[in-house]
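Why do we bother with holo predictions? Because pocket geometry can differ from the apo form. Keep that in mind while you read this record for histidyl-adenosine monophosphate.
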Amino acid sequence: MKAERIKKPRGTSDFIGEDKALFDSIVEKLFLAADKFGCQKIDVPIFEEQQLFFRGVGESSDIVSKEMFKLDVKGEHNYIMRPEFTASVNRSVIENKLFASPDLPIKLSYCGPVFRYERPQAGRLRQFHQFGIEFFDSKIDTMTAMDSVLLLYRAAEEILGHELYLKVNYLGGSQARENYRKALREYYRTKVDSMCEDCHRRYQINVLRMLDCKVPEDIEINKGAPAISGYLIEEDKKNFETMLNALDALKIEYKRDDRLVRGLDYYTGLVFEIYDPLNRKLGAIGAGGQYGKLMEELGGPEMEGIGFSFGIERLMLALDSKQKEQLVNQQSLDYFIVDLRAEKDALGIILADILRSAGRSVSASSYSKKINGSLKMADRLKAKTTLIFTDNNPGVVLIKNMETREQIEYPSSDVDKIVSKLMEMERE
Ligand code: HAM
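The structure, written out:
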C-alpha cells in the first residue's frame, strides 16, 4: 500500500526554482535600497517570549489575541513564533544596548518569516515573509520619519515600476489618544451591544481597534465614529503638517485617511500603508508607523522609533509575468558543462571546481542527456557559455556562446589552459 502523502501546512509556501529566485531577487533589491539609506542588517530569533508581544504589540491586537502560534516546550516556556519584527527589534536594541550608540538615528533592516494564524487566502498566509526597517532616535524628527516613508515608497516603486497609493494618518501622542479613546467610548457606548463579539472585547481592552473591524454591519457603524484629527494637540498637528509638506515637496502623492489606525497597539504618531493601485485587492503591500513609547514599555530607555514592513509574498503577487521575468533574469549561469563521452574521466568536475573557485556559477547536464536536450537545458538555465565534450571530437572541448550560438574548438588536454582561455574570452 502506498504511504499517505504529507502536505505542507495551510497558508504556507514552498518556493522552488524561479519562485525562489524571484523571492531572493526582491529581498536583494530591498536590502540594497535600505543600504542606500544607511541601514545595517539585523537578525533576531524566530521565536520569542510571549510577553514581548503581549506588551509590545498589545493584547487587543488580532495578531496577539487570535493569531499566535504558541510553542509548548515541555510545559516550561511561553514562547511564540514571531508575528512581526518590530517588538523583537526593539527588544534586541535594548538587550544589546544599541541605544547607547552615539550615532543617531540607529537604522536597522531585516528580513525573515513571520507567523500569524489567519484564515488563508490570496495574499494572506500563515507563514509569510517581511522585509522591514526600524529607525531609532531620542526623538524622531521629520527627516528621519520621511526617510522611512521614502524608503518604503521608492523601494516599492523600483520593484513594481510604477507609482503607488500611500495612505497616511497621525495618531498623536498619549494625550491626544486618551482624549480620542474617551470620545470613541462615548460614541460606541450605546452601539456596542449590537456589534460583533470581537468588538465587545475591543471596547473593553482597546476601543481604537473597533475601527479596524471587518464585519460589514460594524463597518457601517464605524462610519459615524469621530476621527482622530479632531483630538490631536497643537504639537501633533504641527508635526503632521510638516511631514505632509515634506511629502508634497518630494512629489509623493498620498491620501489622508482618518480611519487608518493600524492593527498594532504601539503606534503613536505618523502611520502609513502602501498599496499597489493595480492590485488593490491584495491589501497593503507594506505598512508602518511611528512608535514613541514601545522601547520604554519593554523596559528600555526613552527612545522613539519609526519603521515599516513589506509583505514579500504580496509584492510577488503584485508583479506581472514580464516584471517577474526581468527580476529573475538577473539570475543566470556562467558555464554549463555537457559531457557526452562514453568513457568519462574527472575532466568535467575538475573544470567545474576550478571555475567555481574563480567565482563563476557552473552546472552540468546529466549523463543520459543528448546534445539537443542538453542545449535546451542550458538555455532554460540561462547559461552564458556551454562547454561540450563528445566522442565525435576527441581531445577537444567545444566552447559555445549561448547568445550568439557561435562555437570554437579548444584542446581539452590541459584544464588550466581551458580555464585561461575562458577567462580570456570573458574579457573580449
Ligand atoms: P503589518 O501591517 O501587520 O505591520 O504587516 C506589514 C505587512 O505584512 C502588510 O502590509 C502586508 O504586506 C504583510 N502581511 C501582513 N499579514 C500578512 C499575511 N497574513 N500574509 C501575507 N502578508 C501579510 C507590521 O507587521 C509592523 N511590524 C510594521 C512596522 C514596522 N511598523 C513599524 N515598524
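Residues 384 and 404 are 10 Å apart (CA to CA).
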